[in-house]
Amino acid sequence: MMTMHTDVFDLRKRIYIVTGGAGYLGMKHVEAILEANGRVALFDIDPTVLEKINGLHSKYEKDVKAYVVDITDEKQVTDAVESVMKELGPIYGLINNAANNPKMRETNQKTTGSRLETFSRETWENDLAVGITGAFIMSKIAGREMAKNREGVILNIASDLSVIAPDQRIYRKEGEEKASQLKPVTYSVTKHALIGLTKYLATYWAEEGIRSNALSPGGVYNPNIDPDFMKKLTNLIPMARMAEPDEYKGAVIFLLSDASKYMTGNNLIIDGGRSVW
């Protein structure tokens, strides 16, 4: 009889790169890795990433380094990956988390820029550059290093909007239907594309021992969310609430660890049931 050992969830000092590491959810992914005994390199275009690791150092007392990197710049990514290998060691895993995710407007702000009819090509190209081209570049450069070692894991952070379309009704304000900011087309397109990239990588590098999966979270609660928006959103969720910030840590550890070592090419959807209703 086979028994499950908790050490399959231990990340065993393995080294993981997390893009968008300075962000709200990105920092939670970093914490999850450290809590499971992994080592982390944070990549972010935001220079504050260098300051944010101070709290991680004092809290976890483990190896974590930060790098200011534009993941749409292949030269910067190449240089940063080489620095990680020099300073921490061989790369075992990658979380493609970085994305442009516009915050829904404050109550009194009006804009039509996110509507499809007025959505600019410049914004389209910038959003796709970060969300999908950046993931491609990171996977290409970090993945080829993992392939040399014949082991590794790539985790793409998608969204429940990788499998469903946004319900624009929850973003509209009464009486402002034509002026309301909506979820932009690029967010859905990017997240759907990440699932395609996930499947491609899973088959492309299977013989090199690299697994590739996606995690599709639902909305994550934070205290600054507009109460009216939150009410509309939770009405679409069978569990009738948004996710707490720490509730994806277990899934991240599972997907990065040996606990999921026979899983590849899949999209793990954790959205409180929204996508099945």
Report on the architecture of this protein.
It contains seven helices and seven strands; from the N terminus they run E-H-E-H-E-H-E-H-E-H-E-H-H-E. The protein is of the alpha/beta class and 277 residues long. The protein has a seven-stranded parallel β-sheet, with helices on both faces. The radius of gyration is 19 Å and the shape is globular. The model is unreliable at 104-111 (pLDDT under 50). 37% of the residues lie in helices and 14% in strands. Helix 3 packs parallel to helix 4 and helix 4 (121-149) packs parallel to helix 5. It has one domain: Rossmann fold. Helix 5 links the parallel strand 5 and strand 6 (210-217). The longest helix has 29 residues, at 121-149. The protein has helices at 24-35, 49-60, 74-87, 121-149, 185-204, 227-234, 249-256, and strands at 15-19, 39-44, 64-68, 91-96, 152-157, 210-217, 267-270.
Task: Please specify the SSE layout and strand pairing.
Elements (H helix, E strand, L loop, with lengths): L14 E5 L4 H12 L3 E6 L4 H12 L3 E5 L5 H14 L3 E6 L24 H29 L2 E6 L27 H20 L5 E8 L9 H8 L14 H8 L10 E4 L7
Parallel strand pairs: 1-2, 1-4, 2-3, 4-5, 5-6, 6-7
Helix pairs in contact: 1-7, 3-4, 4-5
